[in-house]
Each structure stands twice: as structure tokens, then as C-alpha cells.
Amino acid sequence: MFAVISDVHSNLEALTTVLADIEQRGIKTIYCLGDVVGYGPNPKECLDLIIQKTKWCVLGNHDYAVFYEPTNFNYGAEQASFWTRSVLETEQEASSRNRRWSFLGELPMRRTLKARLGTNSAIVDFIHASPRRPINEYIFPDDVYTNPLKVRILFERVRNICFVGHTHLPGVFLEEPDFYLPDELGNVYPVVDKEKAIINIGSVGQPRDKDNRASYVYVDENEANFVRLEYDIATTMKKIMAIDQLDDFQAERLREGR
Ligand SMILES: [Fe+2]
Question: I need a surface site. Which of 4, 68, 107, 208 has the fewest CB within 10 A?
């Protein structure tokens, strides 16, 4: 069994809720798809937990923005990146500061695992955004209708299963192309031998599918299970609103799940 989490976005209340749920299920292995930071109020604490609790993490566009530079960000996201960077830079304790910076600076673009999923053996890729542009290409559910060619081209780069985050919209893309919401699947996608799937696991710290609960996926045998969890949104919102450099919109959107 393993769990996959993504897009924590410095939301400590959501992250601790998800980690507790994973622990309670007896799952020992956690992989993270990036965007640990950005938008939210607790970058240090979230980085520390991800470093401590996950087996590995890949690079997201917000992690890139904080460590290198923001590219193509709107004003609010850019301000949040600069604020996050200043929080990490002004850490007084050198060992904590260095540990967090080296973690961000060493994040890979992708990780791959040969896994036994039930009776199937599958090559599983872990990427923040998309198999061809690992840190910044959005794969939207609508793409299967509006840009099917794009989705087919993406599938050329998928061997069996590819876990992604980035859009903060959970669901499963199939090669047809097709897209299924977790609801339509009864929250379970059974991995079928030879069938390719791009599985978006949704976001822990900033869901955008009009459901404000934290989202993640765990895999048991050949089944990818979508999980949603309520967390203390009011506390996270209060923290965001108390920080000048973080736009109040970043708090509002948590309540609305957008
Ligand atoms: Fe994100």
C-alpha cells in the first residue's frame, strides 16, 4: 500500500489531517507530487513534515518559483512565492534553513517505480503536472473534448500509470481519451493490466473542484482510492488573512474549493 499526496501549498491543517488519515490506515509509504509551498501560511512546517514523512517528492511549479523564479504566475501567486522565499531565508536556525533549501533545490522532475498492483505489474510515474512538461502543463478534464489530440500525445509518454497533480482537480484520464470524476468511479479506479491511465490525485491544501475537503489517493492492491477529508479551514484562512503579503483571495478560495 502507498499513498500519493500533492499540492499541499503550505496548508498545515490540511496536511496534518491527511497524514493522520494515512497513518490510521496503516500506510507506511507516502509519495508527494510537489507544490509543497506557495499560496499558504505555513511553508516551513509543511516542508519539514514532507521531508520527514514522505519517501520522495517531485518538483512542482510553486517549489520551482520559490527556489528559482516564478514564471507565468499571476500577481497573487507571485507575491506568495516571494513571501515564502523570505520566510525560508530568514530562518535563524542554520540547519533547518539549509535542510529546507537543499530539499527544494534537489527535487527531481519525475520519479518512476516498478510496482506490483494486485496481479498486475506496472510502471508507475510520479510527476507534478504532465508527462511531457513535468512542472507546468495543465491537463484539464475538458481537454478530452476540446483538445483530444493533446491528451493522446500525452499518453504516448505514459507506460502504464502516471500520477499527477497541478490542476487540483481529481479524476482519471484514459487513453480514448476519456475522463472520469472520482464520483463516477465510486471513488475507486481499478488498475487494469495494459490499460494506461493518468490519475490526478487532487490537492491536499487547495482543492479547486468546488469541494473544499482535502484530497489524496492511496493504492491498495490494484485499486487507486480517492479520499476526501474535512479539515480546519477556518484556522488556515485566519492565518492567511493575518499575513499582508498573502492575498485574502487565497483564504476565500479554500472555503469555496476553487
Ligand atoms: Fe499547485
Answer: 68
- For every residue of 120-137, DSSP letters joined together read EEEEEEEESS-SSSTTT-
Find how far residue 131's CA is from the centre of its chain. 15
SS3 content of the chain, % helix, strand, coil (to 5): 35, 20, 40
**Tell me: the pLDDT tens digits for 46-93?**
999 999 999 999 999 999 999 999 988 999 999 999 999 999 999 999
Q: Among residues 146, 140, 189, 191, which one has the least CA distance to residue 168? A: 140
- For ligand 1, the distance from its centroid to the CA atom of residue 6, given in whole angstroms, is 8
Given a contact cutoff of 8 angstroms between Cβ atoms, the answer to whether 257 and 211 are in contact is yes
Say how many Å lie between the CA of residue 98 and the centre of ligand 1.
24
Ligand 1 centroid distance, CA of 168 (Å)? 6
Reduced to 3 states (helix: H, G, I; strand: E, B; else coil), residue 113 is strand
pLDDT given at position 186: 98
Mean pLDDT taken over the chain: 97
Residue 120 CA to ligand 1 center (angstroms) comes to: 31
Residue 32 CA to ligand 1 centre (angstroms): 12
Span from the CA of 76 to the centroid of ligand 1 (angstroms): 13
